[in-house]
Amino acid sequence: MQPSSTPTTHGAAHVHHDHEELGFWRKYIFSTDHKVIGIQYGLGGLFFLFFGFCLMMMMRWQLAYPGQPLPFGIGKVLERTMGQVANGGVVSSDLYNMFGAMHGTIMVFMGIVPLAFAAFGNYVVPLQIGAPDMAFPKVNMASFWAFFVGCVIMTVSFFIPGGPAQGGWTSYSPLATILAGQGQTWWIIGMVFLITSSLLGSVNFLATIIQLRAPGMTWMRLPFFVWAQFVTGFLLLLAFPPLEAAAIMQLMDKVAHTSFFIPTGLMISGKLADVSGGGSPLLWQHLFWFLAHPEVYVLILPGMGIVAEILCNNCRKPIWGYKSLVYSVFAIGFLSFIVWAHHMYLTGMGTAISTFFQTTTMIISIPSVIILTVFFITLWGSSIRFTTPMLFVLAFLPMFGIGGLTGLPLGFNFVDLMLHDTYYVIAHFHYVVAPGTIFALFGGIYYWYPKMTGRFMSEFWGKVHFWCSLLFMNLIFQPMFQQGMSGMLRRMSDGGANYSAANPANAGAIGTLSDSLMYSNKIISMAAWCLGLSQIPFIINFFVSIWKGKPITNDNPWDATTLEWQTPTPPPHGNFDKTPTVYRGPYEYSVPGAPRDFTPQTQADHTK
Amino acid sequence: MEIPYTVREREDTGLYNAKLGIWLFLASEVMLFGALFSAYILLRVSSPPGFWPHHVLNVPIGTVNTIVLIVSSVTVVMGWASLKMNQFGKYRIFQAITILCALTFVCVKSYEYYDKFTHYAVMKKDGTVVDGHLVSKDKEKIVLHLNEHPETRVRFLTEGDTTPANEPGIAKGAGPITGGHSEPAPNAHKEAASGESHAGHHEPVTVPMSEVQRMEAYGPWHHTYLAIYFTLTGLHALHVIGGALVIAYIWGPGAKMWKTEPERYTNRVEVSGLFWHFVDLVWIFLFPVLYLL
Prior knowledge:
The complex is a heterodimer of chains A (608) and B (293). Chain A has 608 residues and is an all-alpha fold. Chain A has helices at 8-18, 24-29, 34-64, 74-82, 93-128, 137-156, 175-178, 183-211, 224-255, 281-315, 322-335, 351-379, 388-411, 413-419, 423-453, 459-485, 497-501, 515-548; strands at 267-268, 271-272.
């Protein structure tokens, strides 16, 4: 098919014939169209990413300037909304704990997963496999609205008496259960909705990918992004239910006063807890991490899928080792279910079990390295187009590399005993998720934006956004490695000020933090606020480009090969004018003998 | 473009969309119940010796419920097969039996729950325990029918010290369940003793509140066994109710579709039937695990 300009009106006219015109509410709010739902998820995910980041910016103030009220009137607003815990506009330790717990929860379950899996998956996957919609459009809508309800519950929990959950995003029992207030109960109920949303979504994605591939779209012709979403779907499908079970049990502990996670003889404030006892705190951790380690791959695999798409498109050459990628992503998917207890070395599980999980953890790094190597080799000898999406992808590679490699020491239980719960861990997983996944997601937004709106986002402001984000991301997380290796613990709400002051005689020894380390708290905080400012060009660019962006001149503005670029722009309800037929693999760039440097999957003969 | 394979199966997968969807959903359900069963195992193996209750539940009642569910499993298949053979009337009858079985199951389960919520364990200040069904309760006293099978009692974890330092060998010497404090100690009150000795018809036992150290119904808060029992069976009962509602909807108001799209209607019956089989299968595991082991 020629990348001819199919006018938008043509697609719209097509809709008029096939479907009755829907009202505003059915079309944009309670829509069953995968593209609208994808955009709904995307806007929701972006909003909560920013919301979660705002919580962190306030926490960083407390870390840099402990005990001082938040500046620019933010402290006053906080005091008015949160009450006692923000007395005098200061982030108290309790409030710090609340923000910390909610930052993790929001970023993972309401930010990245909705954006990476639900938004991009919903918008792009059916288009890439040549499907008219998801297999179950109504289930898809239900999935979004379950997500919406979960988000509302989580958000409202900030304003209930006693504030939101403060037991950490991991909600370890018995701490999370015995904390005063109802924040944890709200958290659990919110989580049940978010989990339900993910389950409905993953069933839908898997059924769509298995059932609705267009004629000729065989498994080995799937774009890698679809493979990544496929494995992610399985992870969500099988890993989330144990957390749902754990959430039900913790809810029972909170509401029905059971003792699933409460051990015998638990003392609270010097008094024996009024419970039957006999529960196991470790049980919660096992069930939680049985979800939460696959969850790590839920966060990164869609990002890798986006990277593969953008990388090939901008290298103008096929991906090097497509099958290796596919097999690696499957290996990751399988192995991610048997590494969870490497988060629990410090619980005293015993050396035999630790050794098992240490071994599987080392094994899972192999497919991850294969994927990254495939991406790097794909770059070799290509003539790269340095577009904004490509810049984000190029930055993803070393950033994810740093995040992944710094994870290896944590996988060894003898090193982990030292590094556990320090800033080193924070730096490690944020390198994976923040400049890793989030950069891939930004890349994906810049890349698919023309398909969604028919206009490009500004390249100039995109590059400003990229370079500032890259700089400040590294300024934030690089010093944390040093802080962590020097023993700075991750949960101290004053950044370690009291901790250091308590031991002036032992300066230099483990357990005391030097002045330069304490000072780096300020540098990190400044970088975090600058990172916040760096997102302003993106936000403005994102909205202004809907109306003012450079219009595309044809349906395939990036000269791409995959099916989503063979639809009208933006794709109408039902996506394709007629069912596409697929004749070739997803990345046939620069095929010898072809007149152009890309051969779309729908093109039967590459010499035309 | 319309969504393909909503009714007819795709050739290479041999499935229509909804059938694949329900199988995937059931896979996640397996993980959900699997996690709860794992929790059961972990709680049971970590329970102090002699404190994991056995035979608390009424096995004949449980057997009846098991049979009820197995019958419903058969009728749900017969209903679907009838539709396949174009016998709508027979389908209506078979599926009606399925729905009645589901109702029976839920009623029996409610009775069992009621039985547990009216079963009290009272620990007195002298350390002895009175255990039985509630007759009456007010601010001054609690009146109980004594439990005739003390070996089926769910013990407080705080009774009968498991630490050897306090009372050496108490639970160990006398066997796992019936030993120790399930028999009133010599200094126990005489009404408890008389209740134990006269099996069969006996007078209710009255315990003044002033003597009560701790008093609990056999709710989920009393013991982790009861906690996992209520959680597992409660979640299962919700599945039974949900499945029955869907089957009843298809059977009743949803049956209009049989006239317009019989194939799609039959698929709906099949998909709801697959879910129903899963619900039955969970019970097949729950029954031995909670009632017999």
